[in-house]
Write a structure and sequence with these properties.
The structure is a single chain. The protein has about 140 residues and is of the alpha+beta class. Helices cover about 55% and strands about 20% of the residues. The strands form two sheets. Strands 1-2 form a two-stranded antiparallel sheet. It has a two-stranded antiparallel ribbon with strand order 3-4. A hairpin with a 4-residue loop joins strand 3 and strand 4. The longest helix has 20 residues. It is globular and about 50 Å long.
Length: about 140
């Protein structure tokens, strides 16, 4: 299965919108969790046309790459994956979001580069996105 960069980006942006912390009645913080299915049904993802499989795979890749903390189980014998919940975005995940969140930079700089590269990993997406953001910052600092 191939990574869909648009879906990964939207999954991370959608989770940023959905996940949270709240103070419960025991005066401790509690996670407001999500799941791939909850994310697919969210207003943020509605109309984007991603399959359930794309969203699940993007969540799995985000978890396996340390962008989110999630509770899931992979049963190799049955060849299944079951997501129980997604708890929070890690600092690495927030760095990824910061590098891909600007729509104009994503459309004009990052996506064309990803297309030229072909099949990509999350590390490649992040590297290209950080490069685009760095170039943007340097351009604005030079006063051009």
């Amino acid at each position: 299965m191939k990574i869909n960069p648009d879906c990964v980006r939207d999954v991370m942006l959608g989770l940023e919108e959905q996940l949270g912390l709240f103070l419960n009645d025991k005066c401790s913080m509690e996670f407001e969790c999500s799941s791939p299915d909850k994310l697919k049904k969210s207003s943020f993802m509605r109309g984007k046309g991603y399959s359930r499989e794309d969203i699940f795979y993007s969540c799995l890749q985000a978890a396996e790459n340390g962008y989110i903390v999630a509770e899931y189980r992979i049963d190799k014998e049955l060849r299944t994956i079951e997501f129980f919940y997604i708890m929070y975005i890690t600092p690495k995940g927030h760095d990824f979001i910061a590098s891909v969140s600007n729509q104009q930079t994503w459309q004009e700089k990052i996506k064309p580069t990803l297309s030229a590269v072909g099949n990509v990993s999350l590390t490649v997406i992040e590297t290209i996105a950080k490069g685009a953001v760095t170039a943007f910052i340097e351009h604005h600092q030079s006063g051009s």
